[in-house]
Design a protein that fits this description.
This protein has 339 residues and is an alpha/beta fold. Helices cover 29% and strands 20% of the residues. It has eleven helices and 15 strands. The strands form three sheets. A six-stranded mixed β-sheet has the order 7-3-2-1-15-14. Strands 10-9-8-11-12-13 form a six-stranded parallel β-sheet, sandwiched between helices. Strand 8, helix 4 and strand 9 form a beta-alpha-beta unit. The longest helix is centred in the middle third of the chain and has 17 residues. The structure holds beta-D-glucopyranose (BGC) and zinc ion (ZN).
């Protein structure tokens, strides 16, 4: 393994709020966002060879014969909940020097992407969300004629949150042609605003604009890509979704107290405007391939902005610092091996 990223899921695991060790172990090796280099391959391997860079997927199928999702390699849609996840649920992860993995779970990455390949896994969240968005919106005339611009060019997207999932999602939506606005608090990191403007998206700061003012500034909100995990904010923004709009949940809120939500208003609006809300988790190999393709486009268009998402690199000895939330910044990673 070369590098492993740290996210909210890892922080929850190290504070014992989430995660399960493999059977027979009283500890779990964490790490599910990663990039590694192939050292050696077995006899049946044909698509990768020693020296290749790879990003592994996270989820492994459940054992149930009647889980049609897992039986077709779509464990990201597992029905039973008995899937496992490397570094998260009943399987050791990648924050270690050497890993043995099956070829079908490894996604080859071009050597030019070495510096940012550790961001591929968090980008797969947006790629899976986008693939579903295009499928779902086939229910109506939605995409616009492509005059050299991406198919989303006539649609406005609001990204909630400017953490790694939000920023990488914003980049993927820009590449798909959408007009993107990122709505986030700035105080924790001023560079977020710079990254957002570098990619040609708009930044609206939550400190200066409440949800109402943000919605007014954007105009018609066709899509919301939620990447904060704050339900009260999400349901506040739902009220401003346009006709035929889609709201995508990717954040996992912690359990706080109950919040007040105007359910009649939201339900009425959803029905009378053909709106849709969906949640999405994990990603299949197709989304890893899409993320690797998009990462290459990002690096050609905005190399500085992409690299500046990684704000901290730590040795494995110092990994507890970012894991306990003391790292700050946007994305912290742990360096396992140096070239
Ligand atoms: C990972 C997903 C995983 C989810 C739930 C996320 O941090 O990116 O792959 O499915 O946690 O465990
Ligand atoms: Zn399953």
């Amino acid at each position: 393994m070369l590098e492993v990223g740290i996210c909210g899921t890892d922080k929850e695991i190290v504070s014992f709020e989430y995660g399960t060790p493999p059977e027979g172990f009283d500890y779990l090796v964490i790490g599910h966002e990663s990039v590694g280099e192939i050292v050696e391959v077995g006899g049946g391997v044909s698509k990768i060879k020693a020296g290749d860079l790879v990003v592994p997927t996270v989820r492994r199928p459940c054992p149930h014969p009647d889980c049609v999702a897992c039986r077709q390699g779509r464990q990201d849609f597992c029905y039973t909940g008995d899937f496992t996840e490397r570094g998260i649920k009943q399987r050791h992860g990648y924050m270690t020097e050497m890993v043995v993995e099956e070829e079908r779970y490894l996604n080859p990455v071009p050597a030019e992407l070495r510096a940012v390949a550790v961001l591929v896994e968090p980008l797969t969240i947006a790629e899976k969300a986008l693939a579903q968005l295009w499928d779902i919106q086939k229910r109506l005339p939605w995409a616009c004629p492509e005059d050299g611009q991406g198919p989303g060019h006539c649609r406005n997207v609001v990204v909630l949150g400017a953490g790694p999932v939000g920023l990488l999602g914003a980049m993927a939506f820009v590449v798909a042609g959408f007009n993107v606005t990122v709505y986030s608090r700035t105080q924790s990191h001023e560079d977020k605003d710079d990254i957002v403007s570098a990619i040609g998206a708009n930044f609206i700061a939550a400190e200066t604009h409440d949800v109402e003012q943000m919605a007014k500034a954007v105009g018609r909100i066709d899509v919301v890509y939620e990447a904060v995990g704050a339900s009260s904010l999400a349901f506040e923004v739902v009220k401003h979704l346009s006709a035929n709009g889609v709201f995508i949940f990717t954040g996992v809120p912690g359990r706080k107290g109950p919040v007040q939500v105007d359910t009649d208003f939201i339900m009425r609006d959803m029905v009378l405007n053909n709106q849709l809300i969906y949640g999405t988790v994990n990603a299949p190999p197709e989304s890893f391939a899409a993320a690797i393709r998009d990462m290459d486009i990002f690096m050609k268009r905005w190399p500085g902005a992409v690299k500046s998402i990684i704000t901290g690199r730590y040795s494995i000895e110092d990994a507890l610092e970012p894991l306990s939330g003391k790292g700050g910044g946007i994305k912290n990673i742990v360096t396992i091996a140096h070239e």
